[in-house]
Amino acid sequence: MLAASIAGADDPANPAMRHLVEDATDRGRVAALRTAFEHLRQQGAEPLAQDVRTARPGEQITGVLVATDTHSSSVNTGKGIIVVPTQDLGRQKAAAGDDVTVTVKSGFSAAAADRTAQEKPATSQRAASYWSGQVQKGQGARSSPAGVMKEPDASAAKPRGPKLR
Fold it and tell me: In angstroms, what CA-CA distances link 34 with 90, 120, 152?
């Protein structure tokens, strides 16, 4: 996003901001970027510290294949990570670590977006379980075994910072 902002400020005709908005609003591209972020995190890299974007039709990408799945593949070009549709890898049968050159011919499918949307409830369910557990822990700390609320400890309410004179 930062690179796109700088490019757009330097040259208003630069398409980087338009591409950024397209990456953020196209369901297929969003799903491909989410997958790429997951792959980067699994490899111990922070995706937000990288320049990660999706490829455009007609664009030729050369670099090292970082990760691949059925819908999208991530290529490290040395200037950033570019996500390409896996079907455009063709018959290369490339594996992570291989040098690849891809000419992007297709777009990112809505099927990938639908698949990501179906996986999301599992993540949401995990988050809901976590937060319910946190609420239960908090209630357990404030209630007695009989379930009756205890009076708060007066010493806990006192400020604990340094005394000002």
Answer: 22, 11, 45
Rounded Cα gap, residues 132 and 10, in angstroms: 48
Computed on alpha carbons and rounded to an integer, the radius of gyration of the chain in Å comes to 24
Residue type, 81: I
Cα-flanking dihedrals φ and ψ of residue 82, to 5°? -115, 125
Per-residue pLDDT at 144:
47
Tell me the per-residue pLDDT of 8-46, one tens digit each, with 9 for 90 and over: 788 888 787 888 888 888 899 999 999 999 999 998 888
Q: Is the pTM of this model over 0.90?
A: no
Stretches in the chain below the pLDDT threshold 70: 1-2, 91-92, 110-131, 133-161, 165
- Residues 16/1, Cβ–Cβ less than 8 Å: no
How many CA atoms lie less than 13 Å away from 83 in the CB half-sphere? 28
Query: Element (H or E) spanning 73, and its range?
Result: strand 72-76
| β-sheet bridge partners, residue 63 | 100
Give the pLDDT confidence score for residue 122 in this predicted structure: 53
> b or e along 18-46 (b: 16 or more beta carbons within 10 Å of the residue's beta carbon)?
ebbeebeebbbbbbbbbbbbebbeeeebe
Tell me whether strands 52-54 and 81-85 are parallel, antiparallel or unpaired.
Answer: parallel
